[in-house]
Design a protein that fits this description.
The protein is an all-alpha fold and 71 residues long. It has four helices and no strands. It is 62% helix and 0% strand.
């Protein structure tokens, strides 16, 4: 898939998937994209950082390793 379509898919996964591991993986992949050429990435990561119920997903959205986090 072209990057734009992949980004949209990852953003949707991050925002709506019920599976914590899939959301965390989506956040990890999204952090690899250039936010200048993919403007949907940063708002999605910020929203996840602020609202995701999982500490591991929030940590991944912030760009920190999730090791040592409870939850």
């Amino acid at each position: 898939a072209e990057p734009t379509a992949k980004v949209k898919q990852l953003v949707a996964t991050l925002q709506t998937d019920l599976d914590e591991k899939r959301r965390r993986q989506a956040a990890e992949e999204l952090r690899e994209y250039d936010t200048r050429t993919n403007p949907d990435v940063l708002p999605a990561l910020i929203q996840s950082l602020q609202q995701d119920p999982s500490p591991a997903v929030r940590a991944e959205s912030a760009g920190r390793p999730a090791t040592g986090l409870a939850g």
